[in-house]
């Protein structure tokens, strides 16, 4: 059960149901309030019309015992004077708000106009003149007992003066039972319909979410199979839809392709590194074994050379491993011109002297040791292939500093200008390792250039250009 409730489908269904339920409750409550208010206003209007009709009769001088009062059950009416004495009352009306109306009815028992005991009352009540009806009505809710049945009513209270200036208060009501029945019916319908609608919403959301997530389950299953088999050549199914799930599948396949390429590259790197390390180690071991058996035959310079070569190869492999691990270069300012002058001045033992050309001012951000390693690798490469000239320069091109190393050698064939930056690649397979190295120098140089936000490429055959952004 916990697994089901923890699924995306269950959470989506529950979330949608809760949102819809809250929205329906809020909308239903508002609708009930509006409906109740409208029906109450309608009842108040009916009560006011009944009250004004009776008040108009009083204002025109109709005796109280001759008033035409509406049916008591529909519109209970009570007419009273200023002192609260009942002057007239609707048929069968026995009490209003729990107070008896004294049994006064239309007929001989009612008091007619001009028979009030307070004839001396002046005309200062409410500002009304004789024969006028108050334009404002006071509305209030209350109860009325009509023929022994107590019910809720909406009352309207209006004052009027007869022709003699005597004020009477007319209180007429309109039954609220229709309003209560209508509101109750709507409330009952909502209480029945809300759970059913929530069930429908939950079911539809569950089915729609299940259909939408079916490709995701396919992706998950394929990824699980790939993980179990370690076969990175497999790919997840891509749905035809151009939605988020489709983009997820395509991105997953791109990630798998990049991972497969990285793993394959790592395998080749390990195999090539093992092969490259085997030769100097075997050579060094052979020389040491010969030296142990025949000390006079020990080739000390050769052993030292193999040891140095092995040390350089180990350093190259370590640097490549750090670069592959995503190690970011140090964020310091490096003056390329000063670095070129310093590194060139230390290469006095090179086969061909290094000529320094234009050195533009400018700094780049990064690791000086790694950039110096790039320069050294490029100069070493030029020394191997140059006939009689090696030249280095630094020029400014907009927001870039360009370090150029060129030689007068045969150059790199156009079809091989990208391949030479691959690891352990030697264009001249017949060349001795002692002369050509392990084929890691240019690969390291390009990796360092990329880590510094730049590029390294071959131009015009034998010109290597390192482009780096100028430090801000």
Summarize the structure in words.
The chain has 472 residues and is of the alpha+beta class. The protein has helices at residues 2-5, 8-59, 177-229, 244-293, 300-324, 336-345, 368-385, 433-436, 441-451; strands at 77-81, 86-89, 93-96, 99-100, 138-146, 149-161, 167-175, 332-335, 354-359, 363-366, 390-397, 400-407, 455-459, 463-469. Helix content is 48%, strand content 19%. The strands form three sheets. Strands 2-1-7-6-5-3-4 form a seven-stranded antiparallel β-sheet. Strands 9-11-12-14-13 form a five-stranded mixed β-sheet. The longest helix has 53 residues, at 177-229.
The general outline is: rod-shaped
What proportion strand?
15-25%
Determine the mean pLDDT: 83
Number of helices: 9
Helix content: 40-55%
For the secondary structure, the number of strands is 14
Strand order of the largest sheet: 2-1-7-6-5-3-4
Order of helices and strands: HHEEEEEEEHHHEHEEHEEHHEE
Radius of gyration: 52 Å
